[in-house]
Amino acid sequence: MAQLFFRYGAMASGKSIEILKVAHNYEVQQRQVLLLTSALDNRSGVGEIASRIGMQRSARAIQAADDLFELISKQKSIAAVLIDEAQFMTKAQVLQLTRVVDELNIPVLTFGLKNDAFNQLFPGSEALLIYADKIEEMKTLCSFCGRKAVMNLRFSNGQPVYEGEQVQIGGDEAYMPVCRKHYNQPDLVALARRTSINKE
Ligand SMILES: [Zn+2]
């Protein structure tokens, strides 16, 4: 039986490298995968899955209006569907993925953030937490201490940002994984140092 997986983690928890690794594991067995990512993520160009350690490959960029059941059912001999930036999917798209799993019997592995920079669930993550068969956390450490990072701190000009638009695409120059304590009380000296490093 195929299953719908949701692997979530804070920024820089290795989601993209994991997805590339899973794709590779399928492909060495001569099994084809379909790679999807959100058209909203333009950090390395639209339709790219890129990891911080330098590996990247192209993926089909999905828009909010795309019907994923229709898109996936048109593909021939797909062993699995791998989706990066899954938090940006709509609830309707997550429901389409449940049909891919249940009706087409194709496993779907989704990877994304759980909560946004203001600690609200993203729409795709909320639906995945409800509908996924298997949910796994990918761990990473707080940027300020050794505890597990459970939140994403957005920052700008060396200062934490606690309100704004939910979707603001950015990488290490705009977000850092943090524990709850340091989300509320980031080390401003370390944050300023981090900001100046990123400007160099
Ligand atoms: Zn911390």
Detail the poorly predicted runs.
none
CATH class call of the largest domain: Alpha Beta
Class per helix and strand makeup: alpha/beta
Q: What is the helix content?
A: 25-40%
CATH architecture of the largest domain: 3-Layer(aba) Sandwich
Average pLDDT number? 92
Provide the list of bound ligands, each named once.
zinc ion
Work out the number of β strands.
11
Strand order of the largest sheet: 5-2-6-7-1-8
Shape: elongated
- Order of SSEs, N→C? EHEEEEHEHEHEEEEHH
Termini separation = 51 Å
Estimate what percentage of residues fall within beta strands: 15-25%
Number of helices: 6
Radius of gyration: 17 Å
How would a crystallographer describe the biggest sheet?
6 strands, parallel
How many structural domains? 2
Binding site for ATP: 9-16, 84-87
Active site: 85 (proton acceptor)
GO molecular function: thymidine kinase activity
Protein name: Thymidine kinase
Protein described:
The protein is an alpha/beta fold and 200 residues long. Helix 3 (91-104) runs parallel beside helix 4 (123-131). Helix content is 30%, strand content 24%. The N and C termini lie far apart (51 Å). The chain folds into two domains: 4-137, Rossmann fold (3-Layer(aba) Sandwich); 151-199, no CATH class. The strands form three sheets. The chain has a six-stranded parallel beta sheet, with helices on both faces. Strands 10-9-11 form a three-stranded antiparallel beta sheet. Strands 3-4 form a two-stranded antiparallel ribbon. The protein contains six helices and eleven strands. It binds zinc ion (ZN). Zinc ion is lined by residues 142, 144-145, 147, 178-179, 181-182. This is Thymidine kinase. Keywords: ATP-binding, Cytoplasm, DNA synthesis, Kinase, Metal-binding, Nucleotide-binding, Transferase, Zinc. It is found in: Cytoplasm.
